[in-house]
Model the fold of this input.
Amino acid sequence: MVIDLTPEAGFPLHLDTHALEVVIGGDILFERQPRLVNEMNPVLFEPDSLPAGLPFYWNFKLVHAGAADPLFQETRLTFGLVLLPPLKAGVEFVKTHGHYHSCMPGSQIAYPEVYTHYYGELYLLMQRRAQGIATELDDCVLYRMVPGQSILVPPGYAHILINPSRGPALMGGLYSLDAIHDYDPVRETAGGAYYLIEEAGREQFLPNRRYTRIPPFRLISDLSGTRFHPPDEGQLLWRSFIAEPQRYSFITNPVMAGRQFLPEDQRS
Done:
């Protein structure tokens, strides 16, 4: 079945749920890049449970944004898609690898980003290190993403997407071209703070015992008044950025990010 997701995306976007193909219309171009099982084995609850060369999920990198291409280049922002199939590695539901972001030049503020959801069922697991120690966390947040809505991933939070369903899931994200994605801390701890597995037909979140400190995850549904609230709630992320790119300057500008995320006495 081919589903037209243009109303959710703001640009011509179709998903073939059977062939697991993403079709972009117009003069917008994304490059499809698979993340293979052998790349994921270090972060899986049951590694080596699937063939090593099997695609686990796909990233889509923006190559050309059509008429909006100069705007993306000027702001040093880009857009990506992630497609997660209906798949399990043993008892664990398919997920993304998870990573942290580097800090903006001249600051101690890591690059944030904004996620938006297009189709299917997705959990977003976010976790923050305590004093930069990979095995010690001071916050874990779980959010069940809603198609057509966005969420802000604040500085310092690793982020992992999980598809707990029998169908594909597709999301998009706006982030800095200059952000370095650091996968090592998540790889060194064999995954995020929690694994989502299926046991006796039910979802179960298991804590990852390789962490020495894991707070219980906070399940959030209402983003209002939280640091995860997106800049332009209720508006399509792609269109919102193109219409008012200054709303998203905090993604690349450390001064703007400091005003949004730091206590007043720590702002430059």
Summary: The mean pLDDT is 95. The domain at 66-266 is CATH 2.60.120.10 (Jelly Rolls).
